[in-house]
Amino acid sequence: MTTEKVAFTGVRQTLLATLYGRALDSRSRLPVLGDTMAEEAVHRVAYDFTRFRISEGEAVLVAMRGRRLDEWTAEFLAVHPDAVVAHLGCGLDCRVFRVAPPAGVRWFDVDYPEVVELRRHLYPGRPGYRLIGCSVTDPGWLPDIPRDRPALVVAEGLTMYLTDAAMETLVHRIADHFVAGGQAVFDAVSPLAIRAQRLNGILRTTGATLTWGLDDPRRLEGWDPRFALLTETAAVDLPWIDRLPARYRAACRFMRLVPPLRRLGLLLRYRFSG
Ligand SMILES: C[S@@+](CC[C@H](N)C(=O)[O-])C[C@H]1O[C@@H](n2cnc3c(N)ncnc32)[C@H](O)[C@@H]1O
Question: What's the Cα-to-Cα distance from 62 to each of 29, 109, 142, 154, 187, rounded to whole Å?
Fold first, then answer.
């Protein structure tokens, strides 16, 4: 088994933390996501993952977010087996393998070129699947993706690292490019989470900075009327809370009662017309 060296810093390093979270979840007796490929990848990357000090509870929270976005992806593909999927800021996430899309789907994983290069060494290819090494703030990720099929744009752990202007541009570009319309599903954090980011151990370890907080999910509709909010779910309302250790379960129950805390992390699903 070959081992891959990584020298990522800042936001690129955060993908190792979420990968490790999924690996830890897969080791548990009753995993939320059960991503065994994440566990295999952790063993093939020469990196001391323990420096993130990810607790069991944090690992379950990462897995819960991933599971909900997997479900929304699978729901869209069940209705549109001829869709294109653009998975932005994919990092080393194995969504394409977990969801196992129907044969007619074309799936594009997009991240910075050096991240995509590492993916190529770690994971196998599959029919209908392609990697695009490009920043999502650069329009260069779009031209190779077919425009005339229903599109699902999925992003996990990405939007909080973008700026407000970059998010608005992204929203317009998605609706401009995918003329057959589709859905965009992603997670976002609130402005309060941005202000409280010093409490986040993964950010302290990686030196990454959160930059985008969303107060009102309807804001995207104001940016571009082709976007319409379909579903808004608070992370603390996800159904796998009972898999969390007791301390985390209690914290989630408390957060549910305090509106600004309840909205620290959101999972959002939009419809967009082309
Ligand atoms: C917290 S990690 C999440 C990775 C993956 N989605 C997951 O859940 O494991 C953030 C990811 O966003 C990527 N990213 C951040 N800014 C980006 C940009 N402008 N263009 C492309 N990828 C970006 C990083 O390289 C990294 O892979």
Answer: 16, 19, 28, 15, 11
